[in-house]
Fold this sequence. Notes:
It holds the Pfam family Cob_adeno_trans. InterPro entries: CblAdoTrfase-like, CblAdoTrfase-like_sf, PduO-typ. Homotrimer. With 189 residues, the chain is mainly alpha-helical. The protein is built from 6 helices and 2 strands; from the N terminus they run E-E-H-H-H-H-H-H. It has helices at 31-49, 56-77, 86-100, 116-141, 147-168, 180-188; strands spanning 17-19, 25-27. Strand 1 (17-19) and strand 2 form a beta hairpin.
Amino acid sequence: MGNRLTQIATRTGDNGTTGLGNNQRVSKNSLRVHAMGEVDELNSQIGLLLCEDMPAGVREVLVEVQHQLFNLGGELSIPGFELLKEEAVAALDAALATYNAQLPKLEEFILPAGTRGAAQAHVCRTVARRAERACVALGNEEAINEMPRQYLNRLSDLMFVLARVLNRMNGGDDVYWKSARMSQDADAK
Protein backbone atom coordinates (compact mmCIF):
# COMPACT_ATOMS: atom_id res chain seq x y z
CA MET A 1 0.00 0.00 0.00
CA GLY A 2 1.12 3.55 -0.59
CA ASN A 3 2.52 5.90 1.99
CA ARG A 4 0.34 6.88 4.92
CA LEU A 5 -0.25 10.56 5.54
CA THR A 6 2.13 12.12 8.01
CA GLN A 7 0.82 15.63 7.48
CA ILE A 8 -2.44 16.93 6.06
CA ALA A 9 -1.52 20.23 4.38
CA THR A 10 0.95 18.95 1.80
CA ARG A 11 0.08 21.54 -0.85
CA THR A 12 0.72 18.90 -3.51
CA GLY A 13 -2.91 19.13 -4.67
CA ASP A 14 -2.87 22.84 -5.36
CA ASN A 15 -2.47 22.13 -9.08
CA GLY A 16 -5.73 20.13 -9.28
CA THR A 17 -4.21 16.68 -8.92
CA THR A 18 -4.18 14.19 -6.09
CA GLY A 19 -2.02 11.22 -5.27
CA LEU A 20 -3.37 7.69 -5.38
CA GLY A 21 -2.21 4.96 -3.04
CA ASN A 22 0.33 3.80 -5.63
CA ASN A 23 1.88 7.31 -5.74
CA GLN A 24 0.36 8.01 -9.19
CA ARG A 25 -1.01 11.55 -9.54
CA VAL A 26 -4.38 12.01 -11.21
CA SER A 27 -6.84 14.84 -11.75
CA LYS A 28 -9.09 15.54 -8.80
CA ASN A 29 -11.90 15.32 -11.35
CA SER A 30 -11.06 11.76 -12.45
CA LEU A 31 -13.70 9.04 -12.20
CA ARG A 32 -11.53 7.19 -9.68
CA VAL A 33 -11.30 10.21 -7.40
CA HIS A 34 -15.06 10.78 -7.71
CA ALA A 35 -15.70 7.16 -6.66
CA MET A 36 -13.28 7.48 -3.74
CA GLY A 37 -15.00 10.69 -2.65
CA GLU A 38 -18.47 9.15 -2.77
CA VAL A 39 -17.30 6.23 -0.62
CA ASP A 40 -15.67 8.67 1.81
CA GLU A 41 -18.88 10.70 2.06
CA LEU A 42 -20.87 7.50 2.65
CA ASN A 43 -18.54 6.51 5.47
CA SER A 44 -18.93 9.96 7.01
CA GLN A 45 -22.73 9.77 6.74
CA ILE A 46 -22.68 6.40 8.49
CA GLY A 47 -20.51 7.97 11.19
CA LEU A 48 -23.23 10.57 11.66
CA LEU A 49 -25.88 7.84 11.82
CA LEU A 50 -23.86 6.13 14.55
CA CYS A 51 -24.45 9.21 16.75
CA GLU A 52 -28.11 8.15 17.01
CA ASP A 53 -29.67 5.71 19.45
CA MET A 54 -30.00 2.23 17.92
CA PRO A 55 -30.03 -1.45 18.84
CA ALA A 56 -26.58 -2.84 19.69
CA GLY A 57 -26.71 -5.31 16.80
CA VAL A 58 -27.38 -2.55 14.27
CA ARG A 59 -24.51 -0.52 15.74
CA GLU A 60 -22.13 -3.50 15.39
CA VAL A 61 -23.14 -3.97 11.75
CA LEU A 62 -22.59 -0.28 10.96
CA VAL A 63 -19.20 -0.13 12.67
CA GLU A 64 -18.08 -3.11 10.57
CA VAL A 65 -19.49 -1.40 7.48
CA GLN A 66 -17.32 1.63 8.22
CA HIS A 67 -14.21 -0.56 8.31
CA GLN A 68 -15.21 -2.26 5.05
CA LEU A 69 -15.86 1.11 3.40
CA PHE A 70 -12.35 2.14 4.39
CA ASN A 71 -11.12 -1.05 2.68
CA LEU A 72 -13.23 -0.19 -0.36
CA GLY A 73 -11.77 3.33 -0.50
CA GLY A 74 -8.29 1.89 -0.18
CA GLU A 75 -8.97 -0.51 -3.01
CA LEU A 76 -10.22 2.30 -5.22
CA SER A 77 -7.14 4.37 -4.40
CA ILE A 78 -4.77 1.69 -5.71
CA PRO A 79 -5.64 0.56 -9.24
CA GLY A 80 -5.54 -3.25 -9.52
CA PHE A 81 -5.42 -3.80 -5.74
CA GLU A 82 -8.00 -5.86 -3.83
CA LEU A 83 -8.94 -5.14 -0.23
CA LEU A 84 -12.69 -5.80 -0.16
CA LYS A 85 -13.42 -9.53 0.05
CA GLU A 86 -16.47 -11.65 -0.80
CA GLU A 87 -16.97 -12.22 2.93
CA ALA A 88 -17.84 -8.54 3.31
CA VAL A 89 -20.71 -8.89 0.82
CA ALA A 90 -21.79 -12.12 2.52
CA ALA A 91 -21.92 -10.29 5.87
CA LEU A 92 -24.25 -7.69 4.35
CA ASP A 93 -26.44 -10.46 2.92
CA ALA A 94 -26.63 -12.07 6.38
CA ALA A 95 -27.54 -8.75 8.02
CA LEU A 96 -30.17 -8.14 5.34
CA ALA A 97 -31.73 -11.53 6.00
CA THR A 98 -31.68 -11.03 9.78
CA TYR A 99 -33.23 -7.56 9.84
CA ASN A 100 -35.62 -8.06 6.93
CA ALA A 101 -37.11 -11.11 8.69
CA GLN A 102 -38.13 -8.84 11.60
CA LEU A 103 -40.10 -6.43 9.40
CA PRO A 104 -43.63 -6.61 8.01
CA LYS A 105 -43.93 -7.00 4.26
CA LEU A 106 -44.08 -3.69 2.39
CA GLU A 107 -47.33 -3.09 0.54
CA GLU A 108 -46.69 0.51 -0.47
CA PHE A 109 -43.75 2.82 -1.00
CA ILE A 110 -42.36 4.55 2.06
CA LEU A 111 -40.94 8.02 2.39
CA PRO A 112 -37.38 8.63 3.62
CA ALA A 113 -38.68 9.96 6.92
CA GLY A 114 -39.65 9.05 10.46
CA THR A 115 -37.13 9.23 13.26
CA ARG A 116 -33.92 11.17 12.82
CA GLY A 117 -31.97 7.89 12.81
CA ALA A 118 -34.21 6.42 10.11
CA ALA A 119 -33.99 9.57 8.01
CA GLN A 120 -30.17 9.49 8.30
CA ALA A 121 -30.18 5.82 7.29
CA HIS A 122 -32.08 6.89 4.16
CA VAL A 123 -29.44 9.54 3.48
CA CYS A 124 -26.82 6.77 3.75
CA ARG A 125 -28.89 4.66 1.34
CA THR A 126 -28.94 7.37 -1.29
CA VAL A 127 -25.24 8.16 -0.90
CA ALA A 128 -24.51 4.42 -1.25
CA ARG A 129 -26.44 4.40 -4.54
CA ARG A 130 -24.46 7.42 -5.73
CA ALA A 131 -21.20 5.72 -4.75
CA GLU A 132 -22.33 2.61 -6.62
CA ARG A 133 -23.03 4.69 -9.74
CA ALA A 134 -19.58 6.27 -9.43
CA CYS A 135 -17.99 2.81 -9.27
CA VAL A 136 -20.01 1.69 -12.30
CA ALA A 137 -18.84 4.78 -14.22
CA LEU A 138 -15.24 4.06 -13.21
CA GLY A 139 -15.65 0.40 -14.21
CA ASN A 140 -16.85 1.49 -17.65
CA GLU A 141 -13.53 3.30 -18.19
CA GLU A 142 -11.01 1.27 -16.15
CA ALA A 143 -10.80 -2.26 -14.83
CA ILE A 144 -12.03 -2.53 -11.24
CA ASN A 145 -12.97 -5.50 -9.12
CA GLU A 146 -16.60 -6.59 -8.79
CA MET A 147 -16.75 -6.46 -4.99
CA PRO A 148 -16.98 -2.64 -4.66
CA ARG A 149 -20.09 -2.49 -6.86
CA GLN A 150 -21.68 -5.50 -5.18
CA TYR A 151 -20.89 -4.22 -1.71
CA LEU A 152 -22.38 -0.79 -2.36
CA ASN A 153 -25.48 -2.32 -3.96
CA ARG A 154 -26.11 -4.57 -0.95
CA LEU A 155 -25.26 -1.78 1.49
CA SER A 156 -27.89 0.47 -0.05
CA ASP A 157 -30.47 -2.29 0.40
CA LEU A 158 -29.34 -2.81 3.99
CA MET A 159 -29.62 0.90 4.77
CA PHE A 160 -33.24 0.84 3.55
CA VAL A 161 -33.98 -2.11 5.83
CA LEU A 162 -32.17 -0.53 8.77
CA ALA A 163 -34.16 2.69 8.30
CA ARG A 164 -37.31 0.61 8.75
CA VAL A 165 -35.80 -1.05 11.83
CA LEU A 166 -34.87 2.33 13.32
CA ASN A 167 -38.37 3.70 12.72
CA ARG A 168 -39.81 0.78 14.71
CA MET A 169 -37.29 0.94 17.55
CA ASN A 170 -39.63 2.70 19.99
CA GLY A 171 -42.96 1.54 18.60
CA GLY A 172 -42.96 3.72 15.49
CA ASP A 173 -43.68 2.71 11.91
CA ASP A 174 -42.74 3.49 8.35
CA VAL A 175 -43.94 6.75 6.82
CA TYR A 176 -46.06 5.65 3.90
CA TRP A 177 -46.40 7.53 0.64
CA LYS A 178 -49.93 8.82 0.13
CA SER A 179 -50.27 7.95 -3.51
CA ALA A 180 -53.21 9.02 -5.64
CA ARG A 181 -53.83 5.37 -6.49
CA MET A 182 -54.16 4.40 -2.83
CA SER A 183 -56.56 7.28 -2.25
CA GLN A 184 -58.70 6.17 -5.20
CA ASP A 185 -58.66 2.55 -4.01
CA ALA A 186 -59.73 3.64 -0.50
CA ASP A 187 -62.52 5.84 -1.90
CA ALA A 188 -63.78 2.96 -4.06
CA LYS A 189 -64.25 0.74 -1.00
